[in-house]
Design goal:
It is a single chain. By secondary structure, the protein is mainly α. The chain has one domain: 434 Repressor (Amino-terminal Domain). It has helices at 4-21, 30-40, 45-52, 56-64, 71-81, 85-99, and strands at 25-27, 104-106. The protein has a two-stranded parallel sheet. It is globular and about 40 Å long. The relative contact order is 0.17.
């Protein structure tokens, strides 16, 4: 029968492996959500850019997370896709916060 110290060591090793496995943070740009929603609604990227009042090039930058999703864009997204403004603002804030972390993986 294993002693308590062996059991404790085994738990400590498992805990270390689990902790290591979850140290990386995945930063997902709000654009990923936008793409999913427009695909579900059969809206093209060009149509979406037009509806948002931005160029196709700026829309691509928004999708990739290369520019920030502003309040005005969030208002337009709410009108077009139905998700509330605060949803978009929180998603953007979380994305930008995650980008500041050391071990971040972007999608």
């Amino acid at each position: 029968m294993a002693s308590n110290s062996h059991f404790y060591f085994a738990l400590k090793c498992i805990n270390y492996k689990l902790k290591w496995r979850f140290e990386k943070v995945i930063a997902i740009a709000p654009g990923e959500t936008i793409i999913e929603l427009i695909e579900d609604r059969c809206i093209t990227e060009h149509e979406m850019a037009e509806s948002l009042g931005i160029s196709d090039k700026d829309f691509v930058h928004l999708i990739k997370g290369e520019c920030e999703l502003t309040y005005n864009i969030a208002v337009r997204l709410e009108a077009i896709l139905g998700a509330p403004v605060d949803f978009w603002i929180r998603l953007e804030a979380r994305y930008r916060e995650n980008l500041k972390m050391d071990d971040v993986v972007t999608l």
